[in-house]
Structures are given as structure tokens and as C-alpha cells.
Design goal:
Blueprint (H helix, E strand, L loop, with lengths): L1 H29 L5 E5 L6 H17 L3 E5 L6 H9 L6 E6 H10 L7 H4 E10 L2 E5 L7 H11 L4 E4 L2 H14 L4 E4 L7 H6 L4 E4 L1 H9 L3 E6 L25 E8 L4 H15 L2 H9 L3 E2 L4 H21 L7
Parallel strand pairs: 1-2, 1-3, 6-7, 6-8
Antiparallel strand pairs: 3-10, 4-10, 4-11, 5-8, 5-9
């Protein structure tokens, strides 16, 4: 009798476990059955916001659900990073942001909001892009060397604008490589620095390509160099900082991220949506317009690259001699 009862109990446990597994699989198969929220780490109208809203518009028809864009800006992206890391891992919170930007923040803050390598999963990759050095289009500076010479003459009175940790690292590596001693002026958003740059209150800037290319097209600012070691296909006419004598290789890349623990079938579904959109000629043209090349890698490779990127940025921060904030 004891063995019989034990057998029945074990069988019941196995049946319950199987039922739970089937239930979990069914929930994954039913995904999505409610609105999906795309999280943007910067304010409406920012370069990041433009990209997030583009993907919200293109992914929405593939989901059959509404996509709500939430701007959770502040602390250089940390507010959004923390929000996503703590969100329910069900596929309804998707962080469309620079994966390299998250890696940067893990090293430029003394107390990062989360251990991103263990709390955030890259579901899909989107593009590769540089940051850019910018000057007033009316300035006499035509090359990076022109800026370097002028800033050395200006000494500690020189200044540069940034609005993201990536820009800070690019700016500080530039200073280390050239001996320039410019003071960094940090803005909440790149566009907030425009008037100061046009008035001469700041001498140059290190900003994202969405903002930079838009300002160049409007004839307000001039792009002198990009942070990547090689020129990008999207902007082959813009020289790299490296080929102008400033040794750096900083490549930003964007992706769609979810909280760690999101069911694999859900992660794979999100990946399929983004791969389909990124593969389209329309998206290639969109990304190229803003200085990015389409970038698609498998889920596991993307996560491995993310973890490595966090380690890489620890080295970049040391080279730039940046003291982590906060």
C-alpha cells in the first residue's frame, strides 16, 4: 500500500509538472495578447526617440497589437535601464536602445542601477553606428586637426558638449590622445546644446548620429569625424577620428532588449519581428539616413557580444581616465 501511494503521488507530481509546462508553452504561443510597451531612454524628439518610434510603427502590424512608446528619460539612460531590468519578464516591456549604451553605463557610474549582464537579455539587434565630433558650420575648423590645434591654444578655456555617456567617453579619449584639456559640458539632450554651440559658448561636441546628421543637413553644424575605426557604409564620405590621427574605435550598436527570464519562445518571436523589419529596404534606408548600418546577429551571439561589450567599456573608461559618477 505504501509503495502504491508513493507511486500515485509521484505520478501526480509528474502530471502537474507536465501541465505547468504545457500551460507555460501555451502562454508563449498566445503571445502577444495585450499591448506591448517600447521603452525609450531619452525624451520625445531626441535622436533615440525618433528611432524607437520608427520601430514601434513598423513592428506593430506584425504583432497585431498596439505598441505604446514610453519615454523614461533621465540619469543618462539609467532610469530606463533600471525600469526594464525590474519589469515583468513576459515580453510586454521591450527596451529599444543602444546595447553599447547600456554597457557604457555599467562602467561610467559607481553604482549602476542593475547588473545588466544578468538582468537584461538582448532579443534582437538593429544597427551599428558611430558617435560624431561636431563644430559650428560657420567655424573655420574643417578637420579634427584644426580643432585640436585651436583647443590646445585655448587651453582650459576650451569646452565641449555631450549628452550621453558614450559621448563623454569619446570626448575624453580624444583629449587623452591629443593633449587637449577642454572642459566637458553635459546636456540633458543633444539638441539642448545647439544654441550654446552656435553662440560659441562651447567649442565642439560629441553627439549621436541621428542628431548630428540632422543638424548638418540643416546647415547648422559640421561633422568632422566618426568614432568607429572604419568608415561606415551609410556615411562613407565622413572620415574616422582614427584616420585623422586620433586612435579610437568606439562602435555603438542598438538592439531590442527584454528582462532576463523572458520565455525563450517570446524572445524568439520578438527577434523575428525585428529581423523582418531590419531586413527591409525601407529600414536600411532609414538607418543609413541616420548614419547606421543594419546589424543582425543571432540571439545567443548578441547576448555574448553584450557581455563582452560591458568588459570592453571598462577598458575604454580606464583609457579615457573617467572617474565613475554617482
Amino acid at each position: 500500500m505504501t509503495c502504491s501511494r508513493s507511486f500515485r503521488a509521484s505520478a501526480a507530481i509528474l502530471v502537474a509538472a507536465a501541465a505547468l509546462a504545457v500551460s507555460g508553452g501555451a502562454r508563449a504561443q498566445q503571445y502577444p495578447n495585450q499591448d506591448i510597451h517600447f521603452i525609450c531612454a531619452f525624451p520625445p524628439g531626441s535622436g533615440a526617440d525618433v528611432l524607437v518610434r520608427y520601430f514601434a510603427e513598423k513592428v506593430r502590424p506584425l504583432t497585431g497589437r498596439n505598441i505604446v512608446v514610453e519615454n523614461r528619460s533621465g540619469a543618462g539612460g539609467n532610469i530606463a535601464i533600471e525600469y526594464v531590468a525590474k519589469a515583468k519578464p513576459d515580453g510586454y516591456t521591450v527596451f529599444v536602445h543602444g546595447v553599447s549604451g547600456v554597457a557604457t553605463n555599467m562602467n561610467t557610474f559607481k553604482r549602476p542601477p542593475t547588473d545588466a549582464a544578468n538582468t537584461i537579455q538582448v532579443a534582437a539587434t538593429i544597427n551599428r553606428q558611430p558617435f560624431m565630433m561636431l563644430v559650428d558650420a560657420k567655424s573655420p575648423y574643417k578637420t579634427v586637426a584644426d580643432v585640436t590645434a585651436a583647443m590646445k591654444a585655448k587651453g582650459e578655456k576650451a569646452s565641449y558638449a555631450s549628452a550621453a555617456p558614450f559621448g563623454t567617453v569619446m570626448g575624453e579619449i580624444y583629449k587623452v590622445r591629443t593633449g587637449v584639456t577642454a572642459v566637458e559640458v553635459v546636456y540633458k539632450n543633444a539638441v539642448d546644446s545647439l544654441n550654446d554651440q552656435l553662440s560659441g559658448a562651447v567649442d565642439y561636441a560629441m553627439h549621436d548620429p541621428v542628431y548630428a546628421l540632422a543638424q548638418e543637413r540643416e546647415g547648422r553644424l559640421r561633422i568632422l569625424g566618426v568614432s568607429t575605426a572604419k568608415r561606415l557604409d551609410a556615411i562613407p564620405n565622413i572620415p574616422t577620428m582614427k584616420e585623422q590621427g586620433v586612435d579610437m574605435d568606439l562602435t555603438g550598436w542598438w538592439g531590442a532588449m527584454v528582462p532576463k527570464g523572458t520565455p525563450r519562445p517570446v524572445v524568439e518571436q520578438i527577434n523575428k519581428w525585428f529581423v523582418e523589419v531590419v531586413n527591409s529596404p525601407e529600414t536600411k534606408a532609414f538607418l543609413n539616413k541616420f548614419g547606421g548600418d543594419p546589424y543582425i546577429v543571432p540571439i545567443d551571439e548578441a547576448q555574448k557580444n553584450f557581455v563582452q561589450e560591458i568588459k570592453n567599456w571598462a577598458d575604454y573608461v580606464k583609457i579615457a581616465k573617467i572617474e565613475p559618477q554617482g
